[in-house]
Amino acid sequence: MKRTLLYGGAVMAATALFSVSFSAETPKWPQNIQTVLDNTKPLEFSRGKRLPLYLWPAMDPGTLSDTDAEALVGELDRRGVGLVCSWSPESKGKSLEQALPIARAQKKLGVKVNVHASSCMNSFFNGDEKTAHIDKDGKPFWDDSFGGGKMGCPFTLDFRKDSIKERFTPFIKAYKDAGLYVGFIFTDWEIDGPIEFNKAWEFSRKCTRCRENVKNIDDFAEFQKDLRIIRSELQHDCYAQPVLNAFPQALVGNYAVYPNDGYRYWYDWFEYYVDGQPCKTDQKAKYRKWYQDFPLTGFTFAMPVFYTWYRTYDWYDFTKNDYRWFYNMLLNASNAGKSTPADIPIISFVHWHTTGAPKKSDAKVAQMSEWAYQEFLWHALLRGIDTFFVWCGSKNANPEVSLVAPVYAAAQEYGDFLEKGTPISFEVPAKPGTVISGLKIGNKVLVRRTDFDGSQKPVEIAVGNKKIVVPAMPGKCRILKIK
Fold first, then answer.
1. Which residues of 199-227 are buried (b: 16+ CB within 10 A; e: fewer)?
2. CB–CB of 66/98 below 8 Å?
3. How many Cβ atoms sit within 10 Å of the Cβ of residue 278?
4. Cβ pair 246, 176 in contact under 8 A
5. Bridge partners (DSSP) listed for residue 41
6. Who contacts 14 (Cβ-Cβ below 8 Å, separation ≥6)?
7. d(CA 374, CA 388)
8. Domains of the chain
């Protein structure tokens, strides 16, 4: 997909590996796979060579025969879904026993070989006292502001690189030896390695080693830059480079690492704002200053995150509940879409159920409606997002899959626009009203219009140096000509 080039520069533990086997005659899939099959349908419109839909439940189907593996890969591919297998160093033999038949089937059928490698990246901060901060008296201490884990000094981690790279090595070798390849590989590497938020700045200013290494540690931007450079180097040297050396065409990425416009419009579940961190405000929201770390990682796809984070609801005073969610998620999608070069695919994590809610949540925080969520998905696609990766647990898998799959399937009707179209707008209205997104090819524009204020009046918008009139068309896309 072509995009405006503004290159200014996970969520869950690895899925459990199943140990059951299935007969080619009457295959009985594990519940996670059956959930996907029950909530998706064969595509009406071919996806061609476009990226598949990724679903958290469509991972690790167990130990299959080559026949069953081929049957399952083929059935999911007919539905536009890419099957993913995990690499787990703690159970290398079982991982390969389960992953290799799937990879063989994917190669045979000409679809991407998909890998989940989160376990391979755990952990740089492994509790070794050599990775701790050091106070003025020479005593080690830890940063406990990330949920109790032992987060330490970012300037101690070079010696951990070889250990992390070695966690990838046997899997890369096994695939190479088997004449297989990796087409798509992702990690959910989050609460580990250098992170500048929460109280990290405070703890680092008490660390003699950090003070020696950050030239002006009292400047948050300087501190952020130095930590993000180290974090990017760890991902590049231990993960991206070894994989790409073996499989040069692989799509390689990590949760929440993507090009951006200099700000991050969301907070992960373990993050919180601390006074003094640079940000821009929007009602009660504080969008933190973000560093352009994506180019340093060597990653070959972007992986933004569009979730209905619980805290987002109270950031805004919109009377339309749905727009509180929609507005923030579209800010995120627009950020990724406008900032990512055209040759970098965008595979975004998405989630519908209210995310990160406390055990005793406020009853006023109404969940985003199914209608608004599906409208958001359409607008994300029309702003440069290439495909989705649905994150969800087994409890919410049915609705999560059933909401995204129809949008993905219906969008394939417009394959030329998805592949070749240039987004016409990244504007996000500051209050509930009319939202328009579109993809342009030549003198044609595929547009979708969503009205949060009930408007039915035609709306004139600019497309380059020309204009088009977009009529009300609830729940539909339309191809309009530029005159």
1. ebbebbeebebbeeebeebeebeebbbbb
2. no
3. 14
4. yes
5. none
6. 86, 88, 116, 118, 119, 188
7. 12
8. 31-419 (3.20.20)
Contact 476, 410 (CB under 8 A): no
Q: Distance between CA 81 and CA 54 in Å, rounded? A: 6
Contacts of 239 (CB under 8 A, 6+ apart): 117, 120, 121, 164, 168, 187, 189, 252, 254
**β-pair type (184-187, 114-116):** parallel
The single residue listed with the structure tokens 């010696």 is 159
What SS3 class is residue 473?
coil
| 446-474: pLDDT as tens digits | 999 999 999 999 999 999 999 999 999 99
How would you class 19 by CB atoms within 10 Å of its CB: exposed for 0-12, middle for 13-18, buried for 19 or more?
A: exposed
> What local confidence, expressed as pLDDT, does residue 6 receive?
34
Where would I find the H helices in 6-65?
Answer: 31-38
User: Which secondary structure element, helix H or strand E, spans residue 396, and what is its range?
Assistant: none
pLDDT range class, residue 17, cuts 50, 70, 90:
very low
- Rounded CA-CA distance 87/188 in Å is 12
- Single out the residue of 161, 152, 147, 162 nearest to residue 130, CA to CA: 152
Task: Give the pLDDT confidence score for residue 26 in this predicted structure.
Answer: 52
pTM, to two decimals: 0.94
DSSP E strands, 188-321: 251-254, 263-264, 279-282, 285-289, 305-309
Place of tokens 């003198």: 443
Q: Give the whole-angstrom CA distance, residue 223 versus residue 217.
A: 6
Count of residues making up the chain: 483
